[in-house]
Amino acid sequence: MGGSPTPSVLCALAFYFVSLLGLVQIVQAQNGTTPPSEVSALNSVFNQWRISAKYDQWNISGEPCSGAAIDTTVLWNIDSTDYNPGIRCDCNGTVCHITQLKVIMLDVFGGIPEELWSLTSLTHLNLARNYLTGPLSSSIAYLTQMQYLSVGINALSGEVPKELGKLTNLIVFYFDSSGVSGAIPSTFAALQNLQILWGSDNELTGSIPEFIGNWSKLRNLRISDLSNGSSSLAFLKDMTSLSTLILRNNNISGTIPSNIGDFQSLSQLDLSFNNLTGPIPDSLFNSSSLVYLFLGNNKLNGTPPPLKSPSLLHIDVSYNQLSAALPSWANNSVMATGFDCIPENLPCLGDIRSSPKYSDFAINCGGPEITSSSQIVYDWDNETLGPATYYEASTKRWAVSNVGLFNDKNDAQYLSFSSSQFTTLDTTLDTELLQTVRISPGSLRYFGLGLENGNYSVTLNVAEIAFLNPPTWKSLGRRVFDIYIQAWHVHENNREVELVDARLLEFDEEEVKRVIGVALLCTQTSPQQRPSMPRVVAMLSGDIEVSAVTSGPGYFTNWNFDTTSFMTADTTPSAENEHSQFKNQKRNGYLGWDETCLALDGLMIEELEGSYRIDEIGAKRVSERGENRIMGNGRKGK
Q1: How many angstroms separate the CA atoms of 358 and 346, rounded?
Q2: Residue 527: Cβ within 10 Å count
Q3: What string of DSSP letters covers 530-556?
Q4: What does the record say about its membrane topology (predicted)?
Q5: d(CA 365, CA 148)
Q6: Cβ atoms of 461 and 454 closer than 8 Å
C-alpha cells in the first residue's frame, strides 16, 4: 500500500486542480501541503474575481502555501497592499492551512463566492476597498476562528447577518461604508473579545445596542448614521478602555455621562450631529488624554470651564446652546462658538449686525486670489485649516470652518489640487477656479457675512474629481450640500429672538416667535402644511396658537442635485479626468433677517477617503435694478 501513487491517481489530481490560477498540481512543500479542498476553494474564488497570485511571491510551483505565504522573514501586514492578493499559511510539517487572505483595493467586482466560507481555518480576512456586491452570506458563521474581518468600503446590500455573532473570537471588525443595512443584530452581544468595531456610513437602523457596554475590551468604536431609532449614552459608563469613540448622527438624546472625561485612554470623542442636552462635563475639558473633542450640532448648554487641559487641542462645540460668556481659550484655534449667531460672539455679527452692507462675495476655494475673465476678484482661500478650526476673511465678507479628522492621514493639509484642464458649457466660467479645492472628512462650511436683506438665488457648481464612475471602490461615496438659512436653525434651538434687529431696543419676545413661526409655516414644501390666509391672520394677531413647525422650509429641505453633466474633461487619458463631471444647482430663497449669515454648508456622510470638496459656489441677487448672474468658485453676486 505504500510508495508512490499510481499513474491514474496522479492524472486525476492534475485534472482536478487545473485552473486559470496556475494551481496545476499539489507539490509536496518543505513545511507541508495545502489540503485539496482549500486549494479548490481558493482557486474558485480567485477565478470568479478574475485575480491571480503575483508571480514568484507565493503559489510557487503550484503550491499555494509557499514563498511569502510561509516565509516568516516577510513583513506581512493584513492591511498592506504588499503581497496583494495574498495568503498566509500555518504549517505543521505535514499540512498547511490557509489562515489569512487579503484582497484589498483591487476593484474586485461581483458577489462574494460561497466557496470562500469553506476556508474555515481563516483567522484574518481583508476584502476592503473593492466593489463587492450582494449580501453577506449566513455561511460566514463557518469562520469561527476569525479574529480580523474587514469588508469595509464595498457595494454590498442586505442586512447585517445575525450569524456574525457566532464569530466569538473576533477582535477587529470593519464594515464601514460597506452598504449593509438593518439593525445591529442582538447576536452581536456574544462578541465579547471585540477591541475595534467600525460600522459608520451604512444603511443601519434602530438604536445603539445597550449590550455594547459589556464589551469590556473595546478600544475603538465608530457607529454613525443610524436612522429610525433613538439611543442614549448610558451604556458608556463602564467602558473605560475606550481610546476612540465616534457616534455621529445617531439621534442620541439625553446627557453626556459625567465620568467620560475620566477614561484614561480616551483621545478622540465625536458625538456631533445628535440631540444631546445638558451641560458638557468639565471632566472632558480637564482630561489628560483627550486631544479631539467634537460635540457640534447638539442642544448642549452651560458654560465651558475657564481652563482646559493643554493636551486638548481640537475642539468643536459649535451649534449648541452654550452661554455667551465663553472662556478666553475659545479663539480661532478651536471652533468654540462656530457661526450659530450667539450675540456678541459671532464674527458675522460684530459691527455689521445693525447695518448689513454686502450682497456679494467671491472665493477661490482652497486656492490663491484669481481675477476672472469677467473681472471678478476671487479672494484667496488657502489658509491652513485643522481638525476643528474656522477662518474669517480679511474682507469680512465670508468665513470658512472645518471639522473632522482623517482616519489615515497623519499630516492632512485639508487642501487638494488638480492640474486637469476642464471644458465647460458655460464659457464665462474660468476653469482655473476648479483646480483647487478644500477637502474635509467631516463638515466643511462657507459663510456669507453681513448680507443685505433681499431675494437671493444660490447656484452651486461642483466639479467631481475624486469619486470615479462605478464599478470601483473610488466611486463609493455620497456628498450632501445644504444652503443653510439661519432662521430655521435658531428656531430649532428656541433662539428666535437672536434674529431681531439690534436697533430695536424694545420688542415683544412672544410676538417675534409668533411671526417667525408663521413665516416658517408659510414656506413649507407641501401645500397641505401651509396655513390658509384667515388662519395666518389669526395666528399673527394672537387669536389662535401658532401651529407647531416640525420640518424646515422648502428652500432648505428640498435640495436636489441636477445630475446632468455640464462639463467634460480634457482628452488627456487619466483616471482622474476620465470621470470628472460638472454639476449645477440653483435655488431661490428670501433672506429677510437683518443680520443674516448665509451658510453654505457641506456635510460629508461618507468618510471613504476623507475626501470632501466644494469646488463651486455661485449666486445671484434679484433687485429692482435687474439681474446679473455670476457663477464662480464661491461667488455670490448682486
Answers
A1: 17
A2: 6
A3: SPPHHHHHHHHHTSSPPPP--S--HHH
A4: Single-pass type I membrane protein
A5: 40
A6: no
For the stretch 416-454, pLDDT in tens is 777 766 655 555 567 777 778 888 888 888 877 777 766
Alpha-carbon span 137 to 151, nearest angstrom: 12
> Which residues have a Cβ under 8 Å from the Cβ of 628 and sit 6 or more positions away?
620, 637, 638
Asked if 318 contacts 297 with a C-beta cutoff of 8 angstroms, the reply is yes
DSSP 14: H
Using CA atoms, how far apart are residues 295 and 256, in angstroms rounded to an integer? 10
Q: Which amino acid is at 501?
A: D
d(C-alpha 233, C-alpha 259), whole Å? 12
Strand partners for 424 = 567
pLDDT tens track for 478-535:
666 555 556 666 677 677 776 676 666 777 888 888 888 887 887 776 667 778 877 8
244 with 293: CB under 8 angstroms? no
The amino acid at 246: I
Given a cut of 80, whether residue 95 has pLDDT beyond it is yes
503: helix, strand or coil: coil
Output the pTM of the full model.
0.75
153-169 burial code (b ≥16 CB/10 A, e <16): bbbbeeebbbbbbbbee
Contact 470/155 with Cβ under 8 angstroms?
Answer: yes
Quick: pLDDT tens for 532-584.
877 887 888 888 888 887 776 654 433 333 322 222 233 233 333 333 333 33
